[in-house]
Amino acid sequence: MAQQLLMPKATAVWLVDNTALSFDQIAQFCKLHPLEVKAIADGEASQGIKGLDPISTGQLSREEIARGEANINHKLKLSDPKVRVPESKRKGPRYTPVSKRQDRPNAILWLVRNHPELKDAQISRLVGTTKSTIEQIRERTHWNAANLTPMDPVTLGLCSQIDLDFEVEKAAKGRPLPTAAELGATLQPTQETERLGFSYDREEEKEIDADAVFAKLKSLKSTRTDEDEDDQY
């Protein structure tokens, strides 16, 4: 894998401020356009960017900068890294140690039961198995199905918790929203909720007779007056 320059724009800011290199040389080294380097020199494209010294990071030597300043046609070269970073492994089926391969069916059963949203390809990546094995465990047709016990693949050491969380989150993003039946909702239709459960029969409202009401009040008042007079005697 070819070595790449760290923070090219910040490195370009430092080279513009601290060297006599041309815009073309800095642009070629930092993989930028010469006009972008010119904008950095004019202060139009470097606001808020702190320069990064490529000498302190070991990506460029003072001798290389001096050669570039002496020869405008010289192309700067990255210094050889002091530490070699190994290339990342290609993506493929996860290797499972021989001592743990017998635990894979138990881990698959655990994933199928606890994370049904995971696809077969995701389970295969997590525990390093085949789709046919996953299907057999799903359908309970595995040769050892009667003796399988669900076991967490993280506890078994078949995958990391970070890998498991990543696959679960990835599967959850593509999963459709749960229906009301899945959520156990018991909402009733509007027609049924409008039935209040009791009957309210509007009886024929009797018209209020004002004369009868006042007559009754007068009789109550007269009765009250007679009782007060009797109390005085």
Secondary structure layout:
Layout: H1 8-18, H2 23-30, H3 34-41, H4 62-70, H5 104-114, H6 120-127, H7 131-138, H8 153-156, H9 161-173, H10 180-183, H11 190-193, H12 210-232
Helix pairs in contact: 1-2, 2-3, 5-7
Concise account of the structure shown:
This protein has 233 residues and is mostly helical. It has twelve helices and no strands.
What does this structure look like?
- This protein has 233 residues and is mainly alpha-helical.
- Among the domains are: 8-70, no CATH class; 98-174, no CATH class.
- 48% of the residues lie in helices and 0% in strands.
- It is built from 12 helices and no strands.
- The protein has helices at residues 8-18, 23-30, 34-41, 62-70, 104-114, 120-127, 131-138, 153-156, 161-173, 180-183, 190-193, 210-232.
- Helix 1 (8-18) packs antiparallel against helix 2 (23-30), helix 2 (23-30) packs across helix 3 (34-41) and helix 5 packs across helix 7 (131-138).
- The radius of gyration is 42 Å and the shape is flat.
- The termini are far apart.
- The model has no long low-confidence stretch (mean pLDDT 77).
